[in-house]
Amino acid sequence: MSEQGNSGRPPQLDYSIPSKQLIAQFHPPALKPIAYKLEEEVWNYNFWLKAGFGNLTTPLLDIAAATSGSDRLTAGVRGNFLMSKGNDIPFQDFRNIGAQAYAKWFGAKNHLTFNTNYDNEQRYYYGINESQRPDPEDKDRIEILQNTIGASVAFDNNSNDYTNLNRHLQLDYYYFGNNYNAREHGLRLTAQGEYLSEKSIGGGVDAFFDYTSFKDEANYTSNLDNSLLKITPYGMLQRPWATLKAGASLFLDGEVAYIFPDIYAEIPVMEGAMSVFGKWGKEAYKNSLRNFTRINPFLGQDLTFFNTFTQERTLGIKGRLGARSTYSLSGGQYLTKQQALFVTDYTDERNAFTTVYDSLKTIAGKLELTYHIDKSHQVKLTTQYNHYKTPFETAAWHLPNLEMMLTGTFSPLEKLQVGGDLFFFSGWKTRLQNNEAQTLKAAFDLNLHADYHFSPHFAAFLNLNNLINNKYQRFNYYPVYGINFVGGIMLRF
What we know:
The chain is mainly beta and 493 residues long.
């Protein structure tokens, strides 16, 4: 658990290509028009404005107003708009409208965070067969409209609470719906507590309960309730010669319950330079319409939702290389049950996607290298190789074998901030109509961004995306945008 501090920052709303995710639960680069993310720091100012325009008819507006000057309360509201129109493929258009209200109250030892949000996204099934492609005036039949309404409240201890007891309690609710009469309600309760004594002996508990209710109003036979519970009590010991954490996880998937060990150990071999670590445990991932849509928004109807469970057995080494560099090298086996895989539904003229489920046996290796330029800037390389075995499906559809990502930020001038992402994913396969496998073109993408601050209140920004102009298909029939950019100004007071 981490303390957010007194910045009043809400949970991040990310519209960028995400960084490295979990092995065997791969979440791909998002099918968004540009690698743009909503800034977190807006709540530190009374007024925030970011406005710009891009080459794909991309207007961008992000505006917020918040209270400041109080040590006890931060509150604000926010609105954002982003749109793009593709040049190469008809209906390769995207639009996002969002709104948010946020408040954070600080007590002597604890703080409360409240957040509500609304999100509306519009896109089209632009991967439709060319012979079935509608006229512009009839594009409503391939339109995708998705609406999300959410609210959350969280309780945390402050960083100046010296009781050695960290605590976090959060309740989240959302409503998700689309223009094909699919409706979903979700409720998640998260509870975490951890105590560490002066003798570095302690323990804690990590738990969540996640419930969703899904109904397809166009198909009255589809009314699905899905619940998932995980409770993990554990003990821990921190000594100069080792860090140990041991417990057990209780899972309740619907009406099926079981217990699994949760063990982590880390032993220093060369002080500061190398430690050996290992983990044996199991994680549970909630599958729902909203979660699937975040990965692949081009879903059809008649979906099923089974929760995914991944057992991890890994060993590795980590440490420092000199004063500024760190490394981590790990590998092992991941055993996944009920892994959701996206496949094209060839009975749907839109080339929409449905899900199939399979077990995965994954042998994976991962390397991370980080160079710290200074306290605020770093360069990080993440490389991972996955070898999948599937007992029923021909391949682990749309999951990559090789994942590489290089990210970095630096400041060549006092007023200039520069950053970039270079990523490469390859080896993902799609299922053809004859059930054979075809390997899709590798993703090779470069994004750069820069901010120049003329003063503390005024700055200019530029985002350059897919500079290699590699129009790869993250999902079959749906290529991403080629090179695109957006630039503009920022005001903050």
